[in-house]
Design brief:
The structure holds 2 protein chains of 2 kinds. By secondary structure, chain A is α+β, with helices and mostly antiparallel strands. Chain A has 9 helices and 7 strands, in the order ββαβββββαααααααα. Chain A is 38% helix and 11% strand. By secondary structure, chain B is of the alpha+beta class. Chain B is built from 17 helices and 19 strands. Chain B is 36% helix and 14% strand. Chain B is globular, with a radius of gyration of 24 Å. The chains are: A alpha+beta, B alpha+beta. The structure holds flavin-adenine dinucleotide (FAD), iron/sulfur cluster (SF4) and FE2/S2 (inorganic) cluster (FES). Iron/sulfur cluster binds next to helix 4 and helix 5 of chain A.
Chain lengths: 253, 640
């Protein structure tokens, strides 16, 4: 296949950045999208030009590192997958493909297609854990967990922290990411003890990091490579309400 | 430097308990004044950093990804072993110990392996407490599956994303400590040297991957949890960034490298499909619970539609040759058998090599829904990559480089041959001998990180409580910084004509052809010469675009490939030295009349620990740690 690529190039966080156009003449439909980017970079290096910087590591849809905004969609046109899992058979000979970084105030561009997502780590640090230190655990089977619940918890826990939800959202809200983690922990008996504190602290960290508020447009879930459900946001809002009331009661008394 | 493995005296089953009760402790007020550096945030590093933070040490943790949650451990699919005996199928600490020793073809240290089996059960408890959503059965209890090389069901799993869930557990514990400020996290930092002061590891030199700044970090001890070096083969199932650099820098500074040639080739990966291929994708071993491996009996049938090949014309060769274990033989055995079949011209794809992994009988026996429930994410992954539906047609698979049993030599306390420099997880050589059993790497990483290192490091640190804060202004740091800068400058100023990848690919091919699934003297010798030449060419002709003081992925890769070019030679030398076949190391000259691996226990029951030669990379010095087996009898490994 022959392709025209329009790629965002930005030297560093201060640079203004612009789209550049490149031609690729021999793309195989069996290549992954990132392998196509490798081919572009090999071509650029051959011409002694600077290759395009992009984040990637596992190349199998699990590390959450890859993050390209392709033709106006985070992770490209196919639902339920990451950029590294996208294959060129999803495009046609002669196509023009637009490739940009995630765009969000809380995710500043570092270079080309690489952005800084450390705000996600900050949110987790504020409460995305169960406070148990090594060596204090009871036998794993002393706390049976119903299979259906275990499955639901797993559905929430599969988030890879890629940030596509933020990139998809017109308000750059990270509510899908945040609510999936809170749901994973709050649904478990081990996690319920801290649930109030968790939701309050994580919400504060979210807002402090510069993510926007959620207006329930649902774009996040539609673009999420792991199919994280919007229902976690609703659940979070309930938990948040409950926690706010509880915290008012404790401050009052 | 001598090779003292520091294995405690006493009965095997009591060693660890005795050790723990006697190891000197560091009082809480002293812990606060002790700095520890942990390089790596995978299962081993993340668990170690979090636990040491909980204990009160001042921890600095480093990773090259943009978040500790993205370490390569995240990609592990199948599961984690533990001797819980929840299935009441006869499992025990001893059996897990025995299976691991046998699976490793009697080339690992008894005491370490027994300790691993002992703490395995605690790992599961710890992870459940953290909220890791392991699979459950209808009674709400933890579910298990089987993995290769064993006859019990002891593998815990979270769908096909066990590594992800375990790592997120460790990451959450780490995040909690970061929040409490006991751990400071440095993302997008690459360690480029270890700093030794008066014979002890006292810090590291890093490059900030965004600004290019070279920084010195000092501490009382340094822990390397930097993973394996499978990417020396260019194509492997490892993440793109996995590398040997941290371990190699330690090696250059005096840490011995043990059994570098012990590499695991995983039998079930998606075959190479083209020149542009950047990595290989694993299809979890758990698939061999229900999938049957076969090739056509007749060469002429190899490209025929598999659905049209009659039952009697198929060779289910693992079931035929190894009736006791069938499709669940250990990885090295399964991989070699696949190679043997394709060497006989029975590859089922036109270009390159592949065999079938077939689920038709499982679907018939269990129904498609059950198969879907067990493996849907793997089947989806397969279909996305190959555009073929494995519920309808058999998967095509072939072995690929997956894991490295070799690594930095460590003693019982996980200390390398440099005092104060520790190695945990895949980065050390310790527990898997010449072949690792499935689902045991996650176990080892977490055992080291949560339960072993935080205890054993006390033995070293308890002697350091009077050592004041180490300053990164010491001349040793300045010298190391200078050397790192000079090397980077040299790399970028070559401005030659060949890309970094072209060198890496060429090295990978040399390694795969000569130091892969089968090795022989002639091939290994020629590989050594080729690698030496390639290395010379690299330092003359590599082209690295961009600058030093900015995000520069090509520069990062170049540094890693430069180290692989030295490691590759050492791997070949090690393979050449070991005149026997054991586990993943198959020397064609040494096989039984039936073609199986022939070990030579009389001459090779040792760990080969290599010392770097600063005057001549090609002439490392071999130290031998003799392995003593007091508790198991060395047998010919048989899965028939
Ligand atoms: C596809 C796949 C599936 C697997 N499935 C299983 C399974 O089901 N069960 C099982 O038991 N095992 C499995 N394994 C093996 C297992 O995942 C690994 O052996 C294990 O996760 C390694 O963990 P680790 O903590 O030692 O290192 P890693 O997870 O590799 O972490 C290395 C860390 O070191 C950091 N690092 C490396 N070099 C540097 C440097 N120079 N400077 C700074 N930081 C550095 C990295 O950033 C990273 O944080 C699988 C492996 C693969 C490839
Ligand atoms: S919720 Fe989905 S899109 Fe958002 S970070 Fe998690 S996996 Fe990515
Ligand atoms: S590179 Fe890991 S998810 Fe895409």
């Amino acid at each position: 296949m022959k392709l025209t690529l329009k790629v965002w190039r930005q030297r560093n966080s201060q640079d203004k950045g612009k789209m550049e156009t490149y031609q690729l003449n021999e793309v195989s439909p069996d290549m992954s999208f990132l392998e196509m980017m490798d081919v572009l970079n090999a071509q650029l290096i051959g011409e002694k030009k600077e290759p395009v910087a992009f984040d990637h590591d596992c190349r199998e849809g699990i590390c959450g590192m890859c993050s390209m905004y392709i033709n106006g969609q985070p992770h490209g046109p196919v639902q339920g997958i990451t950029t590294c899992q996208l294959h060129m058979r999803s495009f046609k000979d002669g196509d023009t493909i637009y490739i940009e970084p995630w765009r969000a105030q809380a995710f500043p561009v570092i270079k080309d297609l690489v952005v800084d997502r450390s705000a996600f780590d900050t949110i987790i640090q504020s409460g995305g854990y169960i406070s148990v230190s090594t060596g204090n655990a009871v036998d794993g089977n002393s706390l049976p967990i119903e299979k259906g619940l275990a499955n639901e918890v797993m559905d929430a826990a599969v988030c890879i922290g890629c940030g596509a939800c933020v990139a998809a959202c017109k308000n750059s809200s990270a509510m899908l990411f945040l609510s999936a983690k809170a749901a994973h922990l709050n649904m478990l008996p081990q996690g319920q003890v801290e649930s109030n504190r968790r939701v309050l602290n994580m919400m504060d960290a979210h807002d402090d990091a510069g993510f926007g508020s959620c207006t329930n447009t649902g774009a996040c879930s539609a673009e999420c490579p792991k199919g994280i459900s919007l229902s976690y946001i609703a659940r979070f809002n309930r938990d948040y309400m409950k926690a706010s009331i509880a915290s008012e009661e404790t401050t009052d008394s | 430097m001598s090779l003292d493995s520091k294995v405690p005296k006493g009965e095997l089953a009591n060693k660890w308990t005795d050790y723990k009760s006697k190891v000197p402790l560091v009082a809480p007020n002293n812990k606060r004044r002790i700095d520890v550096i942990v390089v790596g945030s995978g299962l081993a590093g993340g668990a170690a950093a979090a636990t040491m933070g909980e204990l009160g040490y001042n921890v600095k943790c480093f990773c090259f990804q943009d978040s500790p949650r993205r370490a390569h451990s995240i990609a592990a699919q199948g599961g984690i072993n533990a001797a819980k005996n929840y299935q009441n199928d006869g499992d025990s600490v001893y059996r897990l110990f025995y299976d691991t020793i046998k699976g490793g073809d009697y080339r690992s240290r008894e005491s370490n392996v027994h300790r691993l089996a002992e703490v395995s059960a605690n790992i599961i408890d710890q992870c459940v407490a953290q909220g890791v959503p392991f699979a459950r059965d209808y009674g709400g209890l933890l579910a298990n599956r089987s993995f290769g090389g064993v006859q019990v069901s002891r593998t815990f799993y979270a769908r096909g994303q066990t590594g992800q869930q375990l790592l997120l557990g460790a990451y959450s514990a780490l995040s909690r400590q970061i929040h409490k400020k006991t751990v400071t996290m440095y993302n997008r930092h690459e360690m480029l040297d270890v700093v030794i002061v008066d014979g002890k590891a006292r810090g590291i030199i890093t490059r900030n991957l965004i600004t290019g700044e070279i920084e010195s970090h000092a501490a009382h001890a340094v822990v390397l949890a930097t993973g394996g070096y499978g990417n020396v083969f260019f194509l492997s199932t490892n993440a793109m960034g996995s590398n040997v650099t941290a371990a190699w820098k330690a090696h250059r500074r005096g840490a011995y490298f043990a059994n570098p040639c012990f590499t695991q080739i995983h039998p079930t990966c998606i075959p190479v499909s083209g020149e542009y291929q950047s990595k290989l994708t694993l299809m979890s071993e758990s698939l061999r619970n229900d999938g049957r491996v076969w090739v056509p009996k007749r060469k002429e049938d190899r490209l025929k539609n598999p659905l049209e090949i009659k039952e009697e014309d198929r060779d289910y060769y693992l079931e035929r040759i190894y009736p006791a274990f069938g499709n669940l033989v250990p990885r090295d055995v399964a991989s070699r058998a696949a190679k043997y079949m394709t060497d006989q011209g029975k590859s089922v794809i036109e270009h390159g090599n592949a065999v079938y992994l077939d689920f038709a009988s499982a679907i018939e026996r269990l129904g498609e829904d059950t198969v879907r429930e067990r493996y849907s994410n793997l089947f989806d992954m397969y279909e996305r990559i190959t555009d073929e539906n494995p519920y309808k047609v058999p998967m095509k698979i072939f072995p690929a480089v997956h894991y490295t049993m070799g690594g930095l030599w460590v003693d019982y306390e996980l200390n390398t041959s440099v005092p104060g420099l520790f190695a945990v997880g895949e980065a050390n050589f310790s527990d898997h001998g010449a072949n690792r059993l499935g689902a045991s790497a996650l176990m080892q990483g977490l055992a080291d990180g949560y339960f072993v290192l935080p205890v054993t490091i006390g033995s070293f640190l308890s002697k350091e409580i009077r050592t004041p804060k180490i300053s990164n202004d010491l001349p040793e740091f300045k010298q190391a910084e200078k050397a790192v800068k000079e090397r980077l400058n040299k790399l970028i100023s070559i401005q030659g004509n060949r890309s970094v990848d072209s060198f890496h690919m060429e090295l990978g091919k040399i390694m795969w052809d000569n130091c892969g699934m089968a090795r022989n003297e002639k091939g290994l010798k020629s590989a050594i010469t080729k690698i030496q030449k390639l290395r010379e060419e690299f330092w003359k002709d590599v082209y690295i675009p961009g600058k030093l003081n900015e995000l520069n992925p090509e520069l990062e890769k170049a540094g890693r490939v430069a180290d692989f070019l030295e490691l590759g030679e050492l791997m070949c030398q090690d393979a050449l030295d070991r005149n026997e076949s054991c586990g993943g190391h198959f020397r064609e000259e040494y096989r039984t009349p039936e073609g199986e691996a022939a070990r030579d226990d009389e001459n090779y029951t040792y760990v080969a620990a290599w010392e770097y030669n600063t005057n001549n990379v090609s002439a490392p010095k071999l130290h031998k740690e003799n392995l003593v087996f007091d508790n198991v009898e060395l047998k010919t490994r048989s899965y028939k």
